[in-house]
Amino acid sequence: MKGSWKKSAAGAGMALLFGLSVLAQPSFADPVSAETTHAFFAVNGEWAYLDDGYAVISYQDHLYVPARFVAENMGAAVSWDEATQTVSFQSGKGSKAEQGAGSFYKSGPIAAQTQEVHFVFNGQEKTLDSGYAALSYQDHVYVPARFVAENLGALVQWGEHEALVNVAYLEGADGLSWLKSFAENHPGELISGLKAGVKFSAGTDAYTVVVTHKDGNLAGNVYFVNADGKETKLWSNIESVAQIRSIAQGDHNVVFVNGGAGMHGSWLYAFLYGGEDGPVVVKSFFGDLRTDVFMLDGKIEVAESNTDTGNSDEYLYEWNPANREFVTLDTSVKEYTKASFTNPILGAYDTIWEMRGYVQGDEGGGIPNEWNPHAAETMNAALPQLQWLKEYVTRTDAHVLTTADGSTDQKKTYRYTQGEHAVDVTLVYAEGRGWVVDAIQPVK
Fold it and tell me: Are the CB atoms for 368 and 352 separated by under 8 Å?
């Protein structure tokens, strides 16, 4: 295992390593002393969290975490052969692990044991370097996982000030060498987000987009790198993990980069192709509550919200491809005491997330204040047909809404589509109050 990073925790330095957890019944060596500790994890611009029952372990000045966790967050399949005590990894053969709300890992001494385990990556057996061992803790196996990550083609970076384990990977045989070269040419920058094959139109170059920040939640840059290695470097305020997506409207794509701004809020940047100058920033958005992108009737919309003395300033923007600019559709103040929405489009979009929370049990069993009694009745009646809302999506996905026929100035119905599923959300205007949700109707 080449190279290591050191960090301080519980009075000892820890090199950046990770681990794998699989159920096993092996023969054990002598017990060893170790301790659980705390760290954050990100994989290609997405936060990743350990499931309950697993821990981050410090052993002999090294940091271990379950490598099934790392591998599955890279989309790899992991299998265990108990007869041969072998863990097998297959790149791209699994589904990305769903993420929960996350948890903090408690620190304290533990008793673990070393264990002999065999590892096979994409059909090739690999062995741990001398000085490293697999650990058994609470019936699970933990192994050094820079070993796992790099054998699956990932670059691992350590953010000491953030206690951040940062994993970045690109598909393809040259992915790891490309990332190592990029990291060497940009010292001090952590890869916050990463996406290959990004195009602005059929006739433009395909770019690998890399978002970076500096350790300690300091702002970094957005890089667009073409196939020849030519970089376009654009500064950003993003200070942590970032997501990248390309959204088409007409013949051209707008590339969006969305990322955290320290402890509160998020930045959203929109990029277009600028000809000989390469990609350029069209507009930046900031919201301490949200900055979301969604589609409405085939048009790109951006929602931005900021808190203001207990209420929120709401902004709705729409992309105008002819003028290559975002135009402001609505500016309003949402008064939470009125328990309503000031704009029906934003109301429908927010209702989708309220519905997700209700189906998943995150709303405490209660109906959101912006829903009237009829909406509650229709939602409860539709629950068996709306279990697909539990499927994992993020607010950074481009969600699709369409305006239903028959909508009026006083009543609006919007259809939300997700894969093969759809649901209609109807809002009505209540005089002196605003827009309230009136009905939830699954589409058969």
Answer: no
CA 212 to chain centre: 15
Residue type, 36: T
Q: How many CA atoms lie within 13 A of 83 on its CB side?
A: 0
How far apart, in whole angstroms, are the C-alpha atoms of residue 251 and residue 332?
32
DSSP state for residue 277 in the 8-state scheme: G
For residue 363, give the DSSP letter. Answer: T
Distance CA 246, CA 230 (A): 20
> Dihedrals φ, ψ of 356, to 5°?
-60, -50
367 Cβ contact partners less than 8 Å away, ≥ 6 residues apart: 358, 375, 376, 379
The residue extents of the domains of the chain are 8-155, 186-288, 292-444
pLDDT tens for each residue of 215-271 = 988 889 999 999 999 999 999 999 999 999 999 998 899 999 999 886 678 999 999
Cβ contact 257:210 at 8 Å? no
Cβ atoms within 10 Å of 334's Cβ, excluding its own: 21
The answer for residues whose C-beta is within 8 angstroms of residue 186's C-beta and 6 or more apart is: 212, 223
Cα distance between residue 170 and residue 183, in whole Å: 13
User: Using an 8 Å Cβ cutoff, are 346 and 329 in contact?
Assistant: no
Q: In what order do the strands lie in the sheet with 140-142?
A: 15-16, 62-64, 56-59, 28-37, 108-115, 134-137, 140-142
CA separation, residue 195 to residues 44, 71, 151, 158, 170 (Å): 8, 18, 20, 20, 8
For the ranges 18-32, 143-157, 325-339, the lowest mean pLDDT is seen at 18-32
The alpha-carbon radius of gyration of the chain (Å, integer) is 24
Task: Tell me the pLDDT tens digit for each residue of 373-386.
Answer: 999 999 999 999 99
Structure tokens at 279: 């990609």
Q: Which residues on adjacent β-strands are paired with residue 57?
A: 36, 64
Q: Which residues pair with 52 in a beta bridge?
A: none
pLDDT band, residue 360 (cuts 50/70/90): confident
Separation of alpha carbons 46 and 49, rounded Å: 10
Region 427-431 average pLDDT: 95
